[in-house]
Design a protein that fits this description.
heterodimer, A: 272 residues, alpha/beta, 15% strand, globular, B: 265 residues, 2-enoyl-CoA Hydratase, Chain A, domain 1, three-stranded mixed beta sheet, 9 strands
Chain lengths: 272, 265
Amino acid sequence: MPPASDRMTTNEQPQIISQRAGRLLTITLNDPRRRNALGTALFDQLERALDLATAPEVSDPPSVIVLGATGSAFCAGFDLEACVQDAALLPTFVDRLGRLTARIRALPAVVVARVQGAALAGGCALVMSCDIVHASADATFGYPVHRIGVSPAVNVPVLLATAGLGAARRIALSGEIITARQAESLGMVQSVHADERTLHAAVAALAESLCTKGPHALRTTKAWLNQVDGTDAAGFLGAAATRAVQATIDVCRTAESRSMLESFWQQRRSRS
Amino acid sequence: MTERASLTIADGCATILLRRAEARNALDCDTIAALRRCIDAAAAECNSKRSAIRSIVLAGEGKCFCAGMDLKGVLHDAVRMGDMLRGLSSALLALRQLPVPTIARVQGAAIGGGCGLAVVCDFAITHPEAKLGYPEVDLGVCPAVVAPWLVRRIGAGPARAMLLAGGTMGGEEAAARGLVTRCVPAADLDAEVATLAARLATGGANALACTKRMLNELDGSLDEKIAAEAAELSARVIAGPEAQASLTRLYAPKPQGGPAAHPPR
């Protein structure tokens, strides 16, 4: 009998679409109905897509990965409905997100995020772990998680490396949702495009150009940048990231978090 | 052979001039060594009791500020190539530690290691037609030596995107992305540099030196270990098959009338 996640993919639309073309791997979050919320199936399938592409026995691992999404949002964060139903899931999701973002950072491939719509909380964390971020003008970023009693600490180390001390403090503490243009001015986004069509075209051109570059040079340069900015496992921020995952999990397990998440969810349901 | 870099001091401003215009001031072993002598001489002059130097301008003779590393002569000589990269890395460190503010006057081009020189200076001024950037990965080369300085200049996130994407950009984009402090019309470049140098001269010399020292301490500029490691890493990548193949193509004699070899964009 196949594991649960396999059953799900055979019965339902896959939540991750993985396409390989030469040295490029495109991974698309594909649960638009739930705004690509990070839940068990999506985590499973995303991890599996990375496993398949980067396993040691793969003779030609991709040198460039584009991480995109279908629908109106890139990723709206965790699947909160599942977390309300099962209290054990929230800390599990935090742990999985921490591992996933650390893994993306450490991947030998250059990872380009292609962001339309909301990239919030866990979605913003995914984007910040990427090397190059392109967004459409309607994209939004931020960690509006204090209102559910959750801390964005899990992603603070990499946010700090990307946006700098002042901006990281502002965004992580305020829960403010910022526009693509604001994110660009803070160094979190490299390029903002008018709409999704121009976004796709620009990312395709960038990916094509990255594929022409020396793969060894790209790999070495990424690893060196991880060392220089301290986000590799041995670095100051890499070590902090491990502690941050545990700290975030501890917060998720408090009664405060539990009751705030439940009342947030009730309010949302009564609104809709 | 004339000296490939010179130091002149006039009116409280020292100028270090790269003088290899025939090769767009590309950095070969001799040029890096000459640059280093000028930096050390400038440092000694600044540190002498009678110093009147209030700022240092780094400039290149001819049409280009600096076209980057000239690896042609050392491509197949791992020892000399290592020496060259260590020389550049240590020269950048010495340039950063000069006790007065430094201004890069960037005309024409500042590519790769040349862009590294501009970014290590406290200020850099260019013009819209200039080409700046780090096309190292386009050639299978790792910009390890310049990476820490770019991170200190524009932040880790933007530096990551710029170095991994490779390529070059015009002067205005370089200013927008923080590579240089200002982009002015080419005709105004000298005046802009002179105005900035004059303004810097109005500040207290001790105050400026103290401020610069503090900034260098805080942003990791004094990290000799990372500078040394960067040179070794860069040399290893250049010695590898991928970079050797693309650099051999780049430096191959051009067929008569054929297209010139350009780095891919």
